[in-house]
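Progress against Task 2.4 (sequence-to-structure conversion) is shown through the following example record, which the project officer requested during the mid-term review.
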Amino acid sequence: MAETQRKKRPAPSTARKWLAAATSRKWLFFDNDGSFEHHFDWVPRHLRVGPWSLGTYLFLVTFSVCLLTCAPSDERPPPVALPTSSPWLWVDVSIFAWGSVVLGYIAFRGYLSVLAISYTGLSWLLLTLRAGFAAFGSLLSLPLLLRASEALRFTALAQATVTFAVWNFVLLPVIYKLHCTGAKQRADFIRWNFSFTLVQIHLLNLPMALANVVVGAGARPFVAFDLYLAFVPLFAYALFYVLILDRVGVHLYPIFSPRLHYSVVGYSSLFVIYYGCYHCYDQLIHAPEGQPLPAA
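Structure tokens generated for the chain above:
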């Protein structure tokens, strides 16, 4: 008698799992109690699941309306092209090369996906791109690259400043207190914090951004449009964080949870930092060697 064997259904692919999760009516994509693969169990549960605070809704709506209706109309300054004789051109080349090396190292270690979803990763990527656009735009006399570097000028600096300040003076002590419950955990966390990758993206990022934007021949005074262009990716990342990562159960920055009753204070603080950077750094800027690029 012939035996018939029922074929086992193949396990659903990762892509299908994510598609099914994304089309679910539940807020959480996965049944994980708001903690992706239990990596975020250390975050208090009331910051992972539950309704958002009213302040979060008000902030997101208000700022989206402001971005759509309040774009500045001031004249954009011409792109700055540096001569090959300027040492600051080679500073930009070095920043781009080192930023690329660090990104390659992170990819080799298998952590590129983690970096890709973080504000820190976005900050490092934009700083590297900005330096590359400025360097090769000047070397090759390409107006398109120089204009791209101008669009990222203040954005790269502001994001590096926020990453440096928020990680070292806010998140690091918060995680150390909430997550590190034993002596071994505390020692491991400190060792991890001073690893090669984290030193680059949390400590060296700010001096690199200052060298690329604030000091030297490629610097120029900021205009209001620089600040506006920096707010756009900041708001885009905020939407990605609360509408995607929150539903996955990834809570990289618990102090910016949309469920905090004072969430609007945390969100507003970032924009205050951006505005403060805009005015404070502008006082330090000078550009003795940079030449405006002729109109193409």
